[in-house]
Amino acid sequence: NAGVTQTPKFQVLKTGQSMTLQCAQDMNHNSMYWYRQDPGMGLRLIYYSASEGTTDKGEVPNGYNVSRLNKREFSLRLESAAPSQTSVYFCASTSSYNEQFFGPGTRLTVL
Amino acid sequence: RKEVEQDPGPFNVPEGATVAFNCTYSNSASQSFFWYRQDCRKEPKLLMSVYSSGNEDGRFTAQLNRASQYISLLIRDSKLSDSATYLCVVNSFSGTYKYIFGTGTRLKVLA
Predict the structure, then answer these.
(1) What residues in B contact A68, CB-CB < 8 Å?
(2) Contact assessment for residue B61 and residue B71, using Cβ atoms and an 8 Å cutoff
(3) For B27-76, what is each residue's pLDDT tens digit?
(4) From start to end of B28-110, where are the E strands?
(5) Which residues pair with A88 in a beta bridge?
(6) Are B72 and B102 in contact (CB under 8 A)?
(7) What SS3 state is found at A16?
(8) How far is A81 from chain B (nearest CA, A)?
(9) A73 touches A58 (CB < 8 A)
């Protein structure tokens, strides 16, 4: 089992460009989450999906959209990137014991 | 007041030492508690869940004090490989499960 996978690992964008971060899990988990991690701050929730077909906003959703394509995949889209979105992005899925498992992350720089 | 607070450290300890981290949380309705380990530039990885009765996994012991709203992590016989940032995570349910992450405590084990 690969667990949670994310692509790409690194990305550099110019202000105003768009991109989609991909996440997939093979653990048959219902819930999936997108977080961002910035220096000196804990992980902050961007969006989550409690089950296939549902998505909800987290703490910092502005500037992002998500799609829960199926049970395995949950993507995060930046429509018009801004320097404030420079961060490390983690996708996670949650087991039936409420334990979260994280992907390796995407390091995004917006110039 | 932050929802989850941790001493940022760093804690510099010699190999073989015992070290303890505390974490306080503000939401008395919190239901699940976890310790994660995060290595530099890597994703958080589950170290252990924290149960009401306390639990132990090898050299690691976790305790929960609901009355005082804090959890602790004790590491005995520290190894160089224990050097990492330790994240306290608290989970509560309000329509869906919400995870709040502390900013982490840095540990450096010295030879």
Answers:
(1) none
(2) no
(3) 888 889 999 999 998 999 999 999 888 899 999 999 999 999 999 999 99
(4) 32-38, 44-50, 55-57, 60-65, 70-75, 84-93, 97-101, 105-110
(5) A37, A107
(6) no
(7) coil
(8) 22
(9) no
